[in-house]
Amino acid sequence: MNDNEFNTLADTALARIEAGLEASGADLDFAMVSAGVLEIEFADGSKIIVNRHGAAQEMWVAARSGGFHFRWDGNAWRATRDGGELMAVLSVLVSAQAGEPVELAC
């Protein structure tokens, strides 16, 4: 995949995450703090950072429970460790930090 394809896929993923967070109604704030970096802040002050990493062509997630890398497999962003899908994994991470169920659409 070339850089333009990666950036398009990554931007689409970030937009889907933003839309899912907006629709969730959860007690959290989120903002694109710079190009390709989404910051999610929770009521307790903790954060999850989702960003694209162009050099590795991966989406990276930093959460209280650890760091996660996702690579495009042709159909979805999959975790490099266990194959989990980005939106499903992020739903679990956001739910844990928000202290309430948050389901981001896949």
Report on the structure:
A hairpin with a 2-residue loop joins β4 (58-63) and β5 (66-72). 33% of the residues lie in helices and 34% in strands. It has a single domain, classed as 2-Layer Sandwich (Metal Transport, Frataxin, Chain A). It has 106 residues and is an alpha+beta fold. It has helices at 3-24, 86-98, and strands at residues 28-34, 37-42, 47-53, 58-63, 66-72, 77-79. It is globular. It is built from 2 helices and 6 strands, in the order αββββββα. The two termini are 22 Å apart.
The average pLDDT is 94
The span between the termini is: 22 Å
Q: State which percent range the strand residues make up.
A: 25-35%
**Number of domain units:** 1
Quaternary structure state of the chains depicted? single chain
Q: Share of helix among residues?
A: 25-40%
> According to CATH, what is the class?
Alpha Beta
> From N to C, what is the helix and strand string?
HEEEEEEH
CATH superfamily: Frataxin/CyaY
The largest sheet is:
6 strands, antiparallel
- CATH topology: the name is Metal Transport, Frataxin, Chain A
| Number of helical regions | 2
Find the count of extended strands (DSSP E, 2+ residues).
6
* Radius of gyration of CA atoms, rounded to a whole number: 13 Å
CATH architecture: 2-Layer Sandwich
Question: Spans of 5+ residues with little confidence (pLDDT < 50)?
Answer: none
Q: SSE layout and pairings?
A:
Elements lengths: L2 H22 L3 E7 L2 E6 L4 E7 L4 E6 L2 E7 L4 E3 L6 H13 L8
Antiparallel strand pairs: 1-2, 2-3, 3-4, 4-5, 5-6
